[in-house]
Amino acid sequence: MSHTNWPLYEVFIRSRSGLSHRHAGSLHAADDDMALDHARDTYTRRMEGVSIWVVRSDRIVASDPAETAALFEPAEDKIYRHPTFYEIPDGVENL
Amino acid sequence: MNRIKPDAQLALRLYVQRLGDNALITGQRMIERVAGEPELEAELANANFALDYLGQARMYYSYAAELEGAGRNEDDFAYARNDREFQNFLLVEQPNGHFGDAVVRQVLFDSFYLLQLEALLECSDQRLAEIAARAAKEIRYHLQHVSKWLIRLGDGTSESNARVSESLARYWRFAGEFFAGDEVDDKFRAAFNGPDLSALAVTWQSNIDALLAVATLTVPADIEHPVSGGRAGLHSEHFGFLLAEMQHLTRSYPGATW
Cα(A58)–Cα(B34) distance, rounded to whole angstroms? Predict the structure, then answer.
């Protein structure tokens, strides 16, 4: 009916204590409170979470897809940024 | 050890059965709303709530069937009884109307039902206290949810305010039945430390007054002769149609499974 009138919210769910919130999806709601209720009823029906964050989608600052090359491709050939050049001393099982 | 007198045992069974009746009929009215909510998210909430009530009805009826010990099961209570045998409040069987009607009806009923469940945590029948503890968690959320909706609608536009004011005026006369009580309530209270309805009435009224104030709605005047009859199985004209739809399948195909 009035989907254009209700703003879009992004939903983040923490599945267990100690883990971080992960993006679960989005939904429509008329206000912040309603967004939390809707997130609870839409995304935690099967015990998916112990904590919910909601944020209005238009409040999220996102990177520009057109800038992908400039933003991310320079990292492609910087293999020295990966910690793969250390010699692991004998006897160290986990590092 | 005190042996429970038969009349107390019957009062317990009927009390549990009535809890089932309220839950089942509330759930059935919500099921009728499925696919009719204004938004997809509201649709999910409504269906979730309906199933919560249905699940509660199953717990109550299963227990009532055990207490009765006559070989009936939960389905027999839901689908094989006639209108006069149901003893739900008349409020919960009222037709759905518009979204604001549903919100007002749920606020009035759930704010009573939650108090009832919280009082039942203290009752001396352990099984019922356990069911009440489980149900109270669900109803606490339902009540929060519909209360927020009542505030949005009451304190919303002049049209939404006018429409829920009208709903409130229509349903108010049914609320007195929550607290009227009859011999089942009296016996249950005496034998099992059941709820004190007059204390519940005071708390209910002050909770509702506070909520309506936030929602900028006027508390309706006291009703001199509130509607009653549900406890005696005397229903409003709408109830037969509700039962006909709810029981149609099991009446037409007794014992059907899938």
Answer: 31
